[in-house]
Write a structure and sequence with these properties.
The protein starts with a helix and ends with a helix. It has two domains: 56 residues, no CATH class; 112 residues, no CATH class. The relative contact order is 0.14. Strand 1 and strand 2 form a beta hairpin. The chain is 29% helix and 29% strand. It is of the alpha/beta class. Strands 3, 4, 5, 6, 7, 8 and 9 form a seven-stranded mixed β-sheet that branches.
Length: 184
């Protein structure tokens, strides 16, 4: 019986058609999938096995996950603040008036807030890997600090250095849009 299973794998029986083959057998084999060796062992009849069972034995994921950061960020509005305190004051004012919590982002020596256009508004652009920021407000912040105190309010700051797109946006701001006082 084991040999029969091996022959089925040799002839190209895949995890998808094992269930439609109508055969019942036991097999043990080593196969190559996408260039990597996988050892799989299934004991007992194959009838009644699910695709999940076969994938589990061969270490195959049920979900394909692809990380696809945006290819392009289009900034349509840019507001520079001379200090992190000035930027945080504006955010504190908005938080106070709206009652909504807000946080600033930090990466690459820049503290910022980006108002991104929702993907639903521009679905074709989003699918192409292009996202839009209707406004990006920013100020220099050489060292990361998790909050900026404004009067009796604290504005949280989130370190987004691990986010490729936000880190690249911060680097672009730092390199191209420093305030006049920073350049001198």
């Amino acid at each position: 019986m084991e040999q029969l299973g091996y022959k089925y794998w040799q002839r190209g029986l895949t995890e998808d058609n094992i269930f439609s083959s109508g055969r019942s057998f036991t097999f043990r084999t080593i196969l190559t999938r996408n260039g990597s060796k996988v050892t799989g062992v299934i004991f007992g009849p194959c009838q009644g096995l699910t695709l999940r069972d076969v994938r589990a034995v061969f270490g195959l994921s049920m979900v394909s996950i692809i990380h696809a950061p945006p290819q392009e960020i289009v900034v349509t509005g840019l507001t520079s603040f001379t200090s992190q305190q000035n930027l945080a004051s504006m955010i504190a004012f908005v938080m106070n008036v709206s009652g909504q919590p807000m946080a600033l982002y930090w990466a690459e020596g820049v503290v910022f807030l980006a108002d991104f256009v929702e993907p639903e508004a521009l679905p074709d652009e989003y699918v192409k890997g292009k996202i839009y920021a209707s406004n990006v407000s920013h100020a220099p912040m050489a060292k990361y600090n998790n909050l900026i105190r404004v009067g009796n309010m604290e504005v949280p700051v989130i370190d987004v250095s691990s986010n490729i797109a936000l880190r690249d946006l911060a680097q672009w701001i730092r390199e191209n849009h420093q305030s006049a006082s920073e350049k001198s």
